Amino acid sequence: MYRNLLTILAGCGLLLGVFALSFQGSSRTRADYVWNNGTEPQTLDPGKASGQPEGELLLGLFETLTVYDPFTLKPVQGVAKSWESEDGLTHTFHLRPDAWWVQRGEIFQVDGKPRNVTAHDFVYAWQRQFYPEVGSEMSFLLLIIEGTTEYQTVLAEHWEKVLEEAKTRGVSVNNLSDLEPDYREAVKTFRQEQWDRLVGVNAIDDLTLEVTLKSPAPFFLSVTSFYVLAPVCREIVETKPDSWTHPDHIVTNGPYYLDQWRYNEFVSLKKNPNYWETSNYVTESLNAWSQQEKLTPAEERQQELWNKLGSFDEHGMESLEALALENDSTALNMYLYGNIDRVRSLPSELLGPMVRAAEKPGAHFPQFHHGVLGGYYYYAINLKLPVFKDPEHGRKLRLALALTIDRTSMVENITRGGQKPAYSIVPPGVPGYPDYAIFGSGDFSKDVARARELVEEVRAAGVKIPRLRILYNTFEGHAKIAAYIQSNWREYLGIDVTPTNQEWGVYLDSKRTSNFDIVRAAWIGDHEDPSTFLDMYTTENQNNDPRYHNPLYDRLILDYSANILRALETPTSRDAILNDVRNWPHYDETIARRKLPSDDKTLAQQFEERIEAFAKASEEDKLEKAMAVRLTLFRIAEEILMWDMPTIPIYFYTSTQLWPPELEGMAMNIRDSHPLKMLRWKDGKRPTGTRYQEMPKLD
């Protein structure tokens, strides 16, 4: 295998030499754990981050209320040491008193006093997600909370007025700090008053946080584990609004603190000596739990993890480093030579052979980790572009493009990682959600014939199809996919496109400003619920790359599903939902005809039967029946989305990674979530030397 890899990676020798030497200098020693992050993170501000390159780092620097268990994805203790909810609506979190804010490893002080993390820090961080000048792309995760939709609207309208008034005074405003002191304080006061009036998030005291949801959400404790909901320290954010994430300034509360950040090279973290998870704390907790008759599920899982991994202060890694390598071959080369400890993406040429090697009877390939990932790869279409904007001909062209991608051939010959062709948005495996293709016949030749008819109709109407640009972030896998799709569209439809790559930060800016024709993107679910994939296409969602707008879709997601108990409360409200769906112009040809794979019913029949079942249910069964209606509403919304085709799903993800068997605390999971604080080297020793000798032969 080593000879095969040398052939494939022959062009990477010089890069390897540069990186290998960088570990040998006196100013930079090799970290205990080094991984390839794939690109340069664009921010370390939880309020502004939205991508995977930022996420793993942020969950090392900041700790949320709950933390992912990588083995089960169930919540365990974070800043919250316990929590409860009697009705599924109001959740009370009890924070630990020894969760400290730190700056470069030292406890951060305010007015000469050590500053611990309080419930007020979570309130501030969650408020900040809605500040227009912050520009969060993930604030929609908080819209399940009572009053947040109204708060978002009020703040956006108020900020527009603030900007207009500042302009009349000759003041240029980008951030709140740009306002004159009196005006700045007035904005802060207004925002706090509106939050207190509208939003169901309250700091009962310093160590008690109360959160009230719009409707019960079984996945809420997974959402509280997401980095977007991490607390931030108000004192540092507001005193250094433009530079607070710099290594010399940043104040964090996680198991690690930021040591260095060298642009386009690496981000290094060091162990937080003041992190709460000490051996004494763990021992005391385990002893206390052993005396209890019954533990909560979270306590049981935390107990298992501590028994397996030990405490962070004694066994956690001392130093970590994330590299910004955009080339898979370079990363693999460095892994084989022992310079990094984990690669999360492999060259496509090796994926097929590696999967086959791992699946051979009696195979021993402990470094290779392969599994399903809860996400999808897609192309978003710019609906502002004239050729795509027309409601009739634009839709026909978008559908034609979607039909003319030979996904089966692509995943077998280009991506080669066991991905599943996608003809819908929500990946398989979401509990209670049906899995079937919404568009496409299952026969590529028939799909191409239909696509050609659609394109002929568009051209016959006098629409000129220009050369289009496919935008993607710099990465060899994306380049191969774009080239393959380019060839499909040219060969079968006579439509020319130009693949164009941009560095990660520039690419993100292009997406945000709609500076693209068609853009490559991907989404990994935050929790096991359809909402995590469908919320993003509502009109005001910051992740709505195509700028899709459909009032019925918005109502299904934001009004009915998000407020399901209220939406189903009366016969009048139930009839309103039924009529709203039935009045969709394409209801008869889609929802009324769609046969579900689980039985012989149509989607329309299931919808009506589930609403009727809710109406007849006893009080104790109403919640269960309401959640069933909610799932059907999501499926209807997805049908509408795929009819309009603002985005083209291409395949559902798998994850293929390499890490050595001595690395403990790692587990493949559908969210590709690997909390840094749980990583351990077996027996406390990182293996040294090269790894290529341990790789199996490839066919």
UniProtKB/TrEMBL annotation:
The gene is mppA. CDD domains: PBP2_OppA (cd08504). It comes from Kolteria novifilia. It comes from the Bacteria. Pfam families: SBP_bac_5. This is Periplasmic murein peptide-binding protein. One of its GO terms (molecular function) is peptide transmembrane transporter activity. Residues 74-544 form the Solute-binding protein family domain. GO terms for cellular component: ATP-binding cassette (ABC) transporter complex; outer membrane-bounded periplasmic space. GO terms for biological process: peptide transport.
